[in-house]
Each structure stands twice: as structure tokens, then as C-alpha cells.
Amino acid sequence: MLVTREYSTIAEARLALAGRMDRAPSLFDRIDWFESLHHHCLASNPVRILQAQEGSNEAWLFLQSPSNDRQSALANWYSFAWAPVYLGDPDAQTQRRLVEVLAAILFKTGRHIDLYPVADSADLLLDAFRRSGWFGVRRPMGGRHVLNLNGRDFAAYWADRPTRLRNQVHRKARSNRFTFEIRHDVIDALWQDYVAVHASSWKQPEPGLSFLRALAEREAAAGTLRLGFARLKGQPVATQFWTVENGTALIHKLAHDRAFDGASPGTLLSHAMFAHAIDADKISHIDYGTGDNAYKTEWMEERQTLYRLDFFNPRFASTWFPAARTAISALVG
């Protein structure tokens, strides 16, 4: 028997889940992730959460509603990828069927749905939504860079890095004045150091510091936080925010003080962080997150394309022109 339910708050969804999504294998599939992201970054947008259940198998869609006519993935720039969340052990056919049922519910009243960033689930979502009546358009929008170690230790991984990167690290290390630390906890003093480095970096002001602090505290409690610092006589000059779990390291944020560009503290800190993750944490996979920054290609070996999926309800004439415009944009790139 297939049952569907809908929730208008994350608190309602959390109650219904009864702990079943608390520590899902992927950080981005956890109820804590969605709840914190909405609370700290997207609170002005109502949520729309749909569940389809068939026996022990479930599919969940976590959406937000920026306007009455539009739903979007409950995600932003902190999300490495967005996808339906599955519970139980549904095979591909069951996953598709459950999502199709949810897409049909959305089709009854929805006009436009946009989902980003979508990776491996793009084909399934396109097929399921189109079968439910939606007109769907897929557009590549950036990528994320990943590394599969395939049994290599850090020495073997480092030997495979580009010559330019290895020479840079060797040269800067000879005159290195920095000390490095990798913390598994977060206290006020450490967080103040993290914020200070970011404020002195090339990056724009961080809009989600409260979200990142909550994430750091949650993952520190779970033992998965890796907060790295490069320091000069105690002063923080570079920092990186990683989490490590289930054989995968996620690189969430990094920054360094521009005043120390010439000494490359960020690059040297990366060297230390990668070595620790590979040899101490024994991870098998590293994900550098969204964005096609050139420096990522030196540390990573694969690029995964990220997609934006737009779905338009053809029953509403108001969607015809934006649907056509989006389809043309996808064709011309």
C-alpha cells in the first residue's frame, strides 16, 4: 500500500521521521541539515515537504516556496548536492515510482519547480516529473571536484599531484614559519579565529556564519569535525572547515589572510589537511564541494557536473513563455 503525506514545517517532518533521518549516511540527507539550513539561511521561505511510503521504503522531497507559484530545492551554496532522500532500501524502479507519485501531487497546484544543485539523481527526477505531466528542462550549472583514492596512502596520492603544486609546497615549506593544528572541537576562541581569518581573506562577507557555527558544533559532537588552522606566532592566518565521516571527507570552507599571500599558508594547510584525512582518518573519497575554482583541479582528479532542473506545469498559460525561454537557454548553453 502506497501512502503519501505532506508537511508544512520541518518540526512536523521531524516528528513523523522519529529519528530515522538523524544520521543518514550523507550529511545533506539529514533532518538536522535541512532544519538548520532553513532556520539560519532561508527562514523567510515556507517549506513544503512531501513523503511517499510503500512498505518499508520511503521517498522524501524537501522543498522551499520562494513564492506562491514556485517551489525550489531546500538548498543553497552550502549544499554540495540536492536529491530525494530515500529510507529503507528501495531499488531504482521503486525510487522512480515514489518520486513520480510526489511529482503528481505537486502537479495538481504547482506552476514552476526548480531544483539545484542536482547530480546523480538528475535522470530519475527528469523522468519521474515528466511522467507526471511536467515539462522539464535540464541545464548544466557548474560542477564539483572529487577525489577517489582507490587505496592510495598520502605519499602515493601526493606523488600523483601536478609538478607545479608539489614544487610550490616544497619551496614554501623550506621557509615555512607557520604551525598547523587540526581540531576536532569548536570553542568560542577557535571560532573567533575562524571568523577573523575569513574577514581578512579575499572572500565576500560570510552570510551564514550562524549556520556554519551550528554545523561545526553538531559535527564536533559527532566526532566528524576537522577545523584546521595555520598560525604565525599564534595568529591565525589560514583556516579550513572539513567534516570526515563514512570514508568521505567534505571540504566546506577555506580562507587565508591576504596579507600572507606570498607565503602560501592556505596551500600548506591544505597539504596538512589532506595528509591527516588520508593517513589518519583513512578516508577513501574527498569532495571539494560546488564551484569550478581552478585550484581544485590540482588537488582533485574528477569533475562531476551539477545540473539545474526546471519543471513547468503546462496547464498554466503563464508558464509557457518562461518554459520556452528556459528550453532555448538550455539548447544554446
TrEMBL record:
<protein>
    <submittedName>
        <fullName>GNAT family N-acetyltransferase</fullName>
    </submittedName>
</protein>
<dbReference type="InterPro" id="IPR038740">
    <property type="entry name" value="BioF2-like_GNAT_dom"/>
</dbReference>
<dbReference type="InterPro" id="IPR016181">
    <property type="entry name" value="Acyl_CoA_acyltransferase"/>
</dbReference>
<feature type="domain" description="BioF2-like acetyltransferase">
    <location>
        <begin position="165"/>
        <end position="296"/>
    </location>
</feature>
<dbReference type="Pfam" id="PF13480">
    <property type="entry name" value="Acetyltransf_6"/>
</dbReference>
